[in-house]
Amino acid sequence: MLSVGVIVANRNNARFLVQCLESVINQTLRPEQIIVADDASTDNSLEVLAPYVRGGTVQLVRNAVQQGVAASRQLAISRSDSQYITTLDSDDFYFSKEKLAQEADTIGRAGKRGRIAFSDVMRVDELGNVMGLVSRSRRIREGDLSFRIRHLSGFIPRDYLVSREDYLAAGGFDTSLRIYEDWDLKIRLSRKCTWHYSHTVGTAYRNNPLGLSRASLPEHVRTMRNIFLKYSAPHGIPRALALARFFVYHSLYLRRPAV
């Protein structure tokens, strides 16, 4: 079975940490490493994490000052030596105990670079109550998803299982980005990798108004536009047409339940 490391980014989410970590620990495929990157939390996150760290279940890395979710994940991944890695935000949790096992089986027991495994996502409210599957409003597709991911068309995988080598080859998270660092990485991963569905429900994505990626609407729009243009034609009419097409897809994307 594959060697799997789970990277958990945390910033002041002490009240959700136990549910998050227990959902990882109770996977039928027990991860080789659980690394929590704490981004200079000012709540009691370290107190909640302490017994897990003392017991050797969790490795803790910590930013002395707040760096953002991308830098936190990058720091934790740099400390990981697992063959495959996956991320999880500390206010989310694994909905199914089979999440990691099913994704590992989807990649193959021997492991194969260039294959990324992903699962469906269950939306839950702030208290953890089920709101519905993302796949009910966004169709899941597999294979070469480079166009669909770049244009935010359909189901966009999250908390996927990827080889550490493929992650590093794609350049890792862009630590200059405060939001949409995950979308930026998926665009780069899609250039060399194909995406494969595990046919299970993986992450429970919490509708948390104080989540790790909160930002104003203008910042959301500006950041998404800049990321899209970074991977588009450099100038002229093709660039303008690409941007117009993106905003059509983007407007449709925002009308559906967000993850």
Task: Summarize the topology.
Elements: E1 4-10, H1 14-25, E2 33-39, H2 45-54, E3 59-63, H3 69-78, E4 84-89, E5 93-94, H4 99-107, E6 115-124, E7 130-133, H5 146-150, E8 162-163, H6 164-169, H7 181-189, E9 194-206, H8 217-230, H9 236-254
Parallel strand pairs: 1-2, 1-4, 2-3, 6-9
Antiparallel strand pairs: 4-8, 5-9, 6-7
Helix pairs in contact: 1-2
Could you explain the architecture of this structure?
By secondary structure, the chain is of the alpha/beta class. The protein is built from nine helices and nine strands. It has helices spanning 14-25, 45-54, 69-78, 99-107, 146-150, 164-169, 181-189, 217-230, 236-254, and strands at 4-10, 33-39, 59-63, 84-89, 93-94, 115-124, 130-133, 162-163, 194-206. Helix 1 (14-25) runs parallel beside helix 2. The longest helix is centred in the C-terminal third of the chain and has 19 residues, at 236-254. The radius of gyration is 18 Å and the shape is globular.
Overall CATH class: Alpha Beta
Q: How many beta-strand segments?
A: 9
First-residue to last-residue Cα separation: 30 Å
Oligomer: single chain
Give the overall average pLDDT: 90
**Approximate helicity band:** 25-40%
Could you please say which CATH topology applies here? Answer: Spore Coat Polysaccharide Biosynthesis Protein SpsA, Chain A
Biggest sheet features: 5 strands, mixed
Side-by-side strand order of the widest sheet: 3-2-1-4-8
Q: What string gives the helices and strands in order?
A: EHEHEHEEHEEHEHHEHH
Any idea what the CATH superfamily is called? Spore Coat Polysaccharide Biosynthesis Protein SpsA, Chain A
Spans of 5+ residues with little confidence (pLDDT < 50)? none
Number of helices, counting only DSSP H or I runs of 4 residues or more: 9
Q: Tell me the strand percentage band.
A: 15-25%
